[in-house]
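Example S7 (structure tokens).
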């Protein structure tokens, strides 16, 4: 399952420049914006999927400390992913404003 998810994430990340830059952008700012915005949405969507997976794992753990710790770690990493996505979008917007 982890290999499938990693492959899917890699495919999304590698296909974004091809899909978003199909029409030639006028300048570098527009080109970067076409990549950053869909990448941000993809990262947030993947993080939300992992949050749901962590919640499911936690609920079905039945009090097993190993599964509970796995669910907690997954939740923490998903939240870190969302924070990194928002920081990247914020950094892009700050640099665009300069």
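Recovered sequence:
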């Amino acid at each position: 399952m982890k290999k499938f998810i990693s492959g899917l994430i890699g495919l999304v990340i590698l296909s974004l420049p091809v899909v978003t830059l199909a029409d030639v952008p006028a300048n570098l700012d527009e080109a970067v914006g076409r990549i950053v915005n869909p990448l941000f949405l993809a990262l947030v969507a993947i993080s939300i999927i992992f949050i749901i997976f962590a919640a499911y794992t936690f609920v079905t753990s039945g009090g097993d400390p190993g599964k509970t710790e796995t669910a907690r770690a997954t939740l923490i990493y998903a939240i870190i992913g969302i924070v990194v996505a928002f920081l990247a979008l914020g950094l892009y917007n700050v640099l665009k404003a300069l």
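Notes on this example. The longest helix spans residues 65-97.
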